[in-house]
Specification:
- With 115 residues, the chain is α+β, with helices and mostly antiparallel strands.
- The protein has one domain: Glutaredoxin.
- The chain has eight helices and four strands.
- Helix 3 crosses helix 7.
- It is globular and about 45 Å long.
Amino acid sequence: MIVYGIKNCNTVKSALDWLKKKKVDFEFHDYKSNGITAAKLKDWSKQVGWETLVNKKGMTWRKLDDKAKAKVTNLAAAIELMTAQTSVIKRPLIEVEGKVVAVGFDEAEYKSKLK
């Protein structure tokens, strides 16, 4: 299991704390330290849709000017934005054996999917 996110994000911290408390083994991939490839984002987008990956409620999205936001209308534009500004990716994202099992932190969802 790989947990993707940013270590200083409160939502990621909550998810990591929950996983540790439940003694779930995981590897952490920090976007700020390790980046993310366009190929990985494309794969995730095929699984959950690029609209799920772009966090339009987050501060990074809200700070974008309207012109930049208006450009994000398709997969290519979304991937360009997410690779350039990894903070706009909804987090954490949990991947198990190449499959996205969760995006964001929802304790009930984690309980049902991460046994």
